[in-house]
Amino acid sequence: MIRLIALTSLVALALPLGACSLDPEKQWYKPGGNYTAADFDRDTKACTKDRVLNEACLQERGWIPLSGDIVKKQAEKPPAGSANRY
Questions:
Q1: Residue 28 in contact with residue 66, Cβ under 8 Å?
Q2: Alpha-carbon gap, residue 29 to 59, rounded angstroms
Q3: 12-58: per-residue pLDDT in tens?
Q4: Global pTM?
Q5: Is pLDDT of 1 > 80?
Q6: Is residue 67 domain-resident?
Q7: What is the C-alpha to C-alpha distance for residues 35 and 32, in angstroms, rounded to an integer?
Q8: 18 lies in some domain
Q9: Does residue 47 form part of some domain?
Q10: Which of 1, 28, 35, 44 could be stapled to 39 by a disulfide with Cβ–Cβ 3.0 to 4.6 Å?
């Protein structure tokens, strides 16, 4: 009985921790044109090798990532000499 409780506790802790480590799924779109899910499936199959998606290949085919994986801009620095203005 103790083993069952320990195993259940271990699984209950491991599942949320494992889910946190997963990368978010990227979303892609092709600007300036009509496209279907079949078009995207065709391009992802062509750009996938050994179960790894080559994102540069998708971008060469006109697809752009639409997810939060884009690097944020750094905060702009105030113009030189403006710190002592007031």
A1: yes
A2: 10
A3: 665 555 555 456 678 999 988 789 999 999 999 999 999 999 999 99
A4: 0.52
A5: no
A6: yes
A7: 10
A8: no
A9: yes
A10: 35
| Residue 52 structure tokens | 């790894």
Strand (E) or helix (H) holding 32: none
Look up the domain containing 50 and give its range.
Answer: 24-72
Number of domains in the chain: 1
- The half-sphere exposure of 70 on its side-chain side, counting CA atoms within 13 A, is 9
Tokens of 46: 């062509």
Q: What is the tens place of the pLDDT at every residue in 8-22?
A: 666 666 555 555 545
How far apart CA 29 and CA 64 sit, in angstroms, is: 5
Tokens linked to 54: 């080559």
Structure tokens that stand for 13 in this block: 């802790």
The whole-angstrom separation of Cα 44 and Cα 58 is 7
Q: Is residue 37 part of a domain?
A: yes
